[in-house]
Every structure is written in C-alpha cells, then in structure tokens.
Amino acid sequence: MTEDAPKKTALLSAADITGIVEFAHGLHELGWELVSSGLTAKTLRQAEVPVREVAELTKAADLVAGRVRLLQPRLFGGILADRQDAGQMRELEREDIPTVDLVAVNLYPLSQVLESGQMSQREAMDFLDVSGAALLRAAARSFHGVIALCDPKDYPSVLDTLRRGKGLSVDQSRRLASKAFNYISYYDSTVAQYLSDGTAESLPDELILSLKKTAELRYGENPHQGAALYSRSGARAWGLNAATLLYGKPLAFNHYVTMDRAADLVGEFRRPACAIVKFANPAGAAVADRPGMAARLAYAADP
Question: For residue 274, what are the contacts with CB-CB under 8 A and spacing of at least 6?
Fold first, then answer.
C-alpha cells in the first residue's frame, strides 16, 4: 500500500477463529487497520497483532450484555456507503467514519447447540447471532466496494490476491457475496426449522430447507457425476445419516438409494426382518424371531 493510498479497514468477528491470526497478520503487514471486539480481538492481541476495539470506532456504550455492540450506525455506515457517491463519502468524512473495506464474520454454530437437544428455546435463542449476520449481509450487499468473508478457507486466496497488489475483481467479490448470503440463509432457515417445531403450515407459500453436508459420496448416479449426502440442520442424525461405514470404499449415490429401499422394506414389519437389495430392487426378504435367522432366510430366498 502506497503512502498516498487511503488506509483500508477490515472488521473481523469470528466465532470460528481458524486462520484468523494469520489472516489478520497478513492484512496488518499490508497496512490495513484491523477493527474487532470480544474473543476475536483478544485472540489477535494475544498473537501481538495490532487491533482497534469496535467501541473506539462506534463511540457507543456496550448495552444489553453486548448484544448491540456491533449494531451501530457508524459501523454500518462505513460498510453500506456507496464509494461512487461523492455525497455519501462527504457524509462519512464529516462524521469521521472510515469506510470498512473487508468484513470477515462467521457465526456461532447454532446448529450444534440445537442438535444437543439439552436447552430450552429461550436458552437456545441466547446463542442466536444477530449482529454478525447483519454485518455480513451488509458487506455482501455492498460487494462492489466491500469484501465479504464467511469461510476461513477463503482467507488465504483473498490475502494472496491483496499481496499481489490487486484488489479483488467484481466477479470475485460477487462470488464471495453469494456465498455469504447462502451462509446467512442456511443459518436463518435452521432457526426457522427449530422454532416451527412441527407446527409450520403443511404447504406454505415459501419453503426453505436447511441442510448440512454429512458425507462426500464416491460418485453420483453415474461415475462422472458428483454427489454428497445431506442431513437436516439442527436435527439429531438418524437413519442412514447416522450409519457408519465399517469396511470398504466410500459409498456412492446408488448405494444410498439401495440402502434406503432396504430400510423402507424392513420398516414395514414389527418382527426382526432382513432385506437383501441390489440396484434398488429387493432380491430377498424375510422375517423371523431373531435378526440372524431373518438374514439367513432372506439370503436363501434367492438361491
């Protein structure tokens, strides 16, 4: 960064601090000013990375147990201001508000809290991240002038681009913004699913499913296709999503279809049952007093 170039500002607020120290150190070496609070600021200071407290920028009292610490006009003004609008930039200058050029935020993993099933709804809502989601949304909305980061895996590539003396292209920023909006949508839909608690409309006008990838599959329906297994976010794993592969290669899409058919078939019976299925077609099935006997009978059904 040259002496004449305006100092860039990065806002860092990470529930997952993976890679945040290295990323912040790299930004500092490039002349960026770092703004943070809470655990993120503490982590950076312990690593001797200079960081400015958010409160110094917002000049606001830390109210309601810190819940509005990051929900401040001076902070959002620096993110949402249109860099191409001279009037808006003069307003920032008049109020001594720096532009925020990069926002790296990831949210508290609420789905892990919900999966435990050990909290009341009121207790669970205390873990809901309102301010972080709002900041990330604002940054993604302003992607023409702001870099929005929600995934630590993107830190190295962004830092590498900045080190080469380049800003991110609009296309790169747009892709990161899309990723951020998807991340926020996933987070919000997890909360919506949790609060509905089976009482939602059966056929709502809008329907959003919050799904989390639980496994990479070897391939899709055909070897040249990709595939993955997903489960409902915030729900305890069950069925095939809770199954453990004891031996052999990773499973493919067709294997899961076949296992699903087998599970559906044995689920029709109250007694111990076994189904042998190949290419999603039952080849043998049996019920017995003991699972082992059911397996032997099912095997004998197709000699």
Answer: 266, 285, 286, 291, 294, 295, 297, 298
Q: Which CATH class is domain 211-300?
A: alpha beta
- Burial pattern 34-72, b for ≥16 Cβ within 10 A else e, equals bbbbeebbebbeeeebebbebeebbebeeeeeeeebbeb
Rounded to an integer, what distance in angstroms lies between the CA atom of residue 206 and that of residue 44?
Answer: 42
Nearest alpha carbon to residue 163 among 27, 21, 8, 2: 27
CATH code matching the domain that covers 9-196, chosen among 3.40.50.300, 3.40.50.1380, 3.40.50.620, 3.40.190.150: 3.40.50.1380
Comparing CA positions, the residue from 31, 41, 30 lying closest to residue 160 is 30
Nearest CA among 279, 117, 93 for reference residue 197: 117
User: Is a pLDDT exceeding 70 seen at residue 186?
Assistant: yes
Q: How confident is the model at residue 198 (pLDDT cuts 50, 70, 90)?
A: low
